[in-house]
Amino acid sequence: ECYVQNTAREYAKIYAAEAEPLEGFGEVPEIIPIFLVHRPANNIPYATVEEELVGEFVKYSVRDGKEVNFLRRDSEAGQKCCTFQHWVYEKTNGSLLVTDLQGVGMKLTDVGIATLAKGYKGFKGNCSISFIEQFRALHQCNKYCEMLGLKSLRTTHQKQRKATSMKSKNLPNSSTIKKTVPKKAREPRDFISSEH
């Protein structure tokens, strides 16, 4: 838990250094630090400690990977969290995604990280790879993504889908097959083979 949150915190610091100087960007999300405390005299010898966040606790993105909570995605904090996710995704070439963004205002805690199956630079996240796939499919850029010059994921995702559909167009279609099949074999049970 500490390793994941503090790793995400380091990415958030780099994001802040790039975003804060931009005119009109304003405040950026901050992932608060979390510490592991050893308490040898206690029945539970280890605990985590972090700053108490006071105010309305909001989930800006959910653990199932579905981008930003639809009720919150129009808020400034929600949009900036979404941009942070996009920024991390782009900086790591789609290999890592900070997810489960939640907290009070711009202070975030208890985040998750999804990585590709092999991990990213020796780091393996605590969330499913499907979070990355869902983010790529569902993310909608906002003005903060544009301010940072992030590439649209829609274009990339559509190109991948188009390439897949182009490959399937090269396969023979049913009319081509019918021309080579004798009339008797045109009944569906003879036409479809489980071996192909």
UniProtKB/TrEMBL annotation:
Residues 165-178 have a biased composition (Polar residues). It is an enzyme of class 2 (transferase). Keywords: Cell membrane, Disulfide bond, Immunoglobulin domain, Kinase, Membrane, Repeat, Serine/threonine-protein kinase, Transferase. GO terms for molecular function: ATP binding; protein serine/threonine kinase activity. Residues 1-153 form the Alpha-type protein kinase domain. One of its GO terms (cellular component) is basolateral plasma membrane. It catalyses: L-threonyl-[protein] + ATP = O-phospho-L-threonyl-[protein] + ADP + H(+); L-seryl-[protein] + ATP = O-phospho-L-seryl-[protein] + ADP + H(+). Gene3D superfamilies: MHCK/EF2 kinase. Residues 184-196 have a biased composition (Basic and acidic residues). It holds the Pfam family Alpha_kinase. Residues 156-196 are annotated as: Disordered. Protein kinase that recognizes phosphorylation sites in which the surrounding peptides have an alpha-helical conformation. Regulates cardiac development and cardiomyocyte differentiation by negatively regulating Wnt/beta-catenin signaling. This is Alpha-protein kinase 2. It comes from Chunga burmeisteri (Black-legged seriema). The lineage of its organism: Eukaryota, Metazoa, Chordata, Craniata, Vertebrata. The gene is Alpk2.
